[in-house]
């Protein structure tokens, strides 16, 4: 997956936005003000930090050396994924799972608003 594809996929989710609260190079993708992905799209190698179910995070880290505990994040709930070596399908699934976890934690009124066309 290339940086442009990563950005496009993150922005494809309902109400997803890109912000730069830390510096001009760190893209922070949010839904309803909550972060679901962080990346430096110009970084070498390309990495993205994603929210993950804690039990699933441990298994992913064991199965893929490209997935490590979240860099500068809560290591129980976040993984940092080196994108290049992993299949694009897996990276997309991990991004989608992160988005879904964040949406599931939103107040009911916000979740319902997201479900509307």
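^ Assign residues to that structure.
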């Amino acid at each position: 997956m290339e940086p442009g594809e990563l950005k496009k996929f993150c922005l494809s989710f309902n109400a997803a936005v890109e912000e730069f609260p830390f510096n001009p190079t760190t893209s922070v993708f949010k839904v309803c003000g909550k972060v679901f992905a962080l990346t430096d799209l110009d970084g070498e190698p390309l990495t993205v930090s994603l929210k993950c179910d804690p039990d699933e995070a441990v298994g992913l880290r064991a199965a893929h050396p490209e997935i490590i505990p979240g860099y500068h994040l809560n290591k129980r709930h976040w993984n940092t994924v080196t994108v290049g070596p992993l299949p694009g399908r897996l990276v997309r699934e991990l991004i989608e799972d992160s988005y879904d976890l964040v949406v599931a934690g939103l107040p009911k009124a916000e979740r319902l608003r997201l479900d509307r066309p």
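The chain has a mean pLDDT of 94.
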